[in-house]
Amino acid sequence: MRIGGALRRRSKIVATLGPATDSAEMIEALLKAGVDVFRLNFSHGEHADHALRVERIRAAEAKFGRPVAIMADVQGPKLRIGKFSGGAVHLQAGQSFQLDMSPTPGDVRRVQLPHPEIMAAAGPGTVLLLDDGKIRLEVVRKRENQLETRIAIGGRLSDRKGVNVPSVALPIPALTVKDRADLAFALDQGVEYLALSFVQRPEDVMEARELVGDRALVLVKIEKPQALAQLEEIISLADAVMVARGDLGVELPAEEVPLAQKRIIKTAHRWGKPVIVATQMLESMITAPTPTRAEATDVATAIFDGADAVMLSAETAAGQYPIEAVTIMSRIVRRVEEDEGWRETKAATRPPAEKNSADAIASAARQVAETIGAKAIAAFTSSGATALRIARERPDAPILGLAPTIQIARRLALVWGVAPIEIGETHTMTETVVRATNVARREGFAEKGEEIVVVAGVPFGKAGTTNSLRVAVVGPDRSATSSAPEGLAG
User: Fold this and answer.
1) 150 is catalytic
2) Whole-angstrom distance, CA of residue 202 vs CA of residue 470
């Protein structure tokens, strides 16, 4: 598969694997349809299930010759009520309802809340949302291990439904015992991204970073109002970001979610961190072969906002039309990226370059490519940082992420505009230019006689040294000509 022919879309697609897409045939079909990153949801399934998925993804990756990233999404501290004697009750608005620590099955008057953290942090006036916000309780009185509430919004409530406490920062770690076991397993499987659920504070990211080290990249899911309060610090510590609109939409008023999405994307873009928009993007396609017009607009809006990637959850994990969902999402993204209004928005929202040589080179690469009409910007990157800096510029030319190892190439699969390609180590700028022009021609990005911009760091093999720029003309086979001397800083 010639990557240049396939890369007509700058924003990436993340797809969740599940019962509907577990087979090797379905994984290959999803890759053909346009998936760049596969998400493994550790809220469901056993380690053996996920290991088999990883094996099949790697086999499909090898078959198609295109680096693919894997994201392990750990569950996080899921808060739930206990069980009812009849399995469910119907709560009436205006009545009293008690939450306590007793494991005795509940009824219409009370139920267990086995979370002392909530008992300690809540007080009169605290709002608790149950079952994704369908039930709303307001605390009126607090006793030891007991909360007396008034039912503000009633309805059917069944066993083990989730609890959200939007107004309180709970003193609970982002990583549970289960998460730590899942994280260790995922690292052993060689995944590229670890997604942290229910991040509340910068310390949550630091804790994960200590466990992960440099074995994977840390992605934070922004789904708590408390995270929005410390957004800059959290994103500065993370490697990537997700706008997780599921729980965020439960804990924030509906009218605040679009604004939060724009703010998170803008902040991530400024920091040069890849950002994913997730949850209910094509929700109706779980059971329907086409999306609603509102869903198509939602995907388009995320692309206009500047998202690096858009994500499918149940649509591909358990839906009836997973391939169609990916295909249609890809078509929507491509159509938006053909629009002149999108190009104008992209240029208008470009963050200013930071005052360092690496960002100056990245900005110069974009400007040179635009001025000469270069067919691609080839970024040789030993850690991925060079490609990320250029992606932050949102150039019109596609970015070739030339990585020394398959591991680094896979990490770049999530990054906007980047075609990740493993080319091995290079040791001089001349060697890098030759490989870059050969790759650009081989993968269908440029033809003989056309120009590309090559960006790298000297000395080679040292991360974080983006300092050299060269314009190169693509030759007929293994040769290239260059317009700048060896090691010239841009």
Assistant:
1) no
2) 39
